[in-house]
Specification:
- With 346 residues, this protein is α+β, with helices and mostly antiparallel strands.
- The chain has three domains: 107 residues, 3-Layer(aba) Sandwich (Rossmann fold); 110 residues, 2-Layer Sandwich (D-amino Acid Aminotransferase, Chain A, domain 1); 68 residues, ATP-grasp fold, A domain (Dna Ligase, domain 1).
- The strands form three sheets. Strands 10, 11, 12, 13, 14 and 15 form a six-stranded antiparallel beta sheet that branches. Strands 4-3-2-1-5 form a five-stranded mixed beta sheet, sandwiched between helices. The protein has a four-stranded antiparallel beta sheet with strand order 6-9-7-8.
- Strand 2 and strand 3 form a beta hairpin.
- Helix 1 packs across helix 12.
- The radius of gyration is 20 Å and the shape is globular.
């Protein structure tokens, strides 16, 4: 199997993407795949490496920056592309659209599901109308409203404090903070708007409970929810960027030490969100569990795959190594090609 791994991109999650790609490529090589490293730059240029065929090999030349046309020619030599570009471009459907137009198979959700999921506000609107998932009220504040304290506070008046303030289209908890009162809201809005020039910020009532995340994996056997993970930051109450990616900054317990009935509800709701948004391949769904019930927060269509990331831990609890997880996703993404080849033979 020849797999091109795309990483990088222009968002503030670029560093996480590079780490995810490195960890993923190593796992694919151990599983026997050939790997082509491809990096998407901040300005739209691409850098294509050389095919790697063995684990532990010295790092191949990364190549020079080139155009998208030349990068696509290299990507067409792969059986499947595994995009691990987090945030803007990688998770908002633009990269998926490019690959679709070029006729290149790839792991993960398509254009529509990616765009919907990255827009937290619109995802909640769709899920509210299409499912029975529990979710707290929230509003979106645009830049114009945020410039005037009175207007911003008026927009948030129907929400009860404390509120969680976060970019509507970001990930890795960048720019996320808690406004304990109306007087803190403006500061939190400024922090959120500073991340990747986000166009809107979501203000959502905070839920007092346990933070739980649940990965959904779709392979040849279909979609299944992996064991939920209970998250407890060791410092503070917010699972922010530092808590996510600093070893030892959080306790991430998998399987979550919650009653079986609660874990079953989390897994059920994760699958509902995955299905309703039209996701494919892999996703991670975040909840707050309060009163024995999961409250939906957001869905990530391309979660991190670093050594500290949550999805590999959930896979391990389900008896799957990262090699098995990655290869299963690649093989599932290659199925359309196998069906087309079989039809051609007939």
């Amino acid at each position: 199997m020849r797999v091109a791994v795309i990483c990088g991109g222009p968002s503030s999650e670029r560093a996480v993407s590079l780490k995810s790609a490195s960890n993923l490529a190593a796992a694919l090589l151990r599983a026997g795949a050939q790997v082509l490293p491809v990096e998407l730059g901040r300005t739209g240029l691409w850098r294509v490496g050389r095919w790697r065929r063995a684990p532990g090999a010295t790092r191949d030349a990364r190549g020079r920056w080139t155009t998208v046309e030349r990068a696509l020619r290299a990507l067409r030599a792969a059986d499947v592309v595994f995009p691990v570009v987090h945030g803007a471009v990688g998770e908002d459907g633009r990269l998926q659209g490019l690959l679709d137009v070029a006729g290149i198979l790839y792991v993960g959700s398509g254009v529509c599901a990616s765009a919907l999921a990255l827009d937290k506000a619109r995802a909640k609107q769709l899920l509210h109308s299409a499912t029975d998932l529990r979710m707290k009220p929230s509003i979106c504040v645009g830049r114009d409203a945020a410039r005037t304290t009175a207007r911003a506070l008026a927009a948030a008046a129907r929400l009860r404090f404390p509120c969680v303030v976060k970019p509507v289209d970001g990930g890795s908890s960048l720019g996320v903070s808690i406004a304990a009162s109306a007087s803190e809201l403006r500061r939190c809005l400024r922090k959120a708007f500073a991340v990747d020039a986000t166009r809107e910020v979501m203000v959502e009532e905070r839920i007092d409970g346990d933070e739980v995340t649940c990965a959904v994996l779709e392979n040849r056997a279909g979609a299944a929810a992996l064991p939920p993970i209970l998250i407890r930051p060791r410092h503070g109450t917010l699972f922010d960027y530092h808590a996510k990616y600093t070893p030892g900054a959080s306790d991430e317990i998998c399987p979550a030490p919650l009653p079986d009935v609660v874990c079953a509800r989390v897994r059920r709701d994760a699958l509902k969100a995955f299905s309703a948004l039209g996701c494919r391949g892999l996703a991670r769904v975040d909840f707050i569990v309060a009163g024995g019930e999961p409250w939906f927060l957001e869905l990530n269509t391309m979660p991190g795959l670093t050594e500290q990331s949550l999805v590999p831990k959930a896979a391990a609890a389900a008896g799957l190594s990262l090699e098995e997880l990655a290869l299963g996703l690649v093989e599932a993404a290659a199925r359309p090609a196998a069906r087309a080849a079989a039809a051609a033979r007939r």
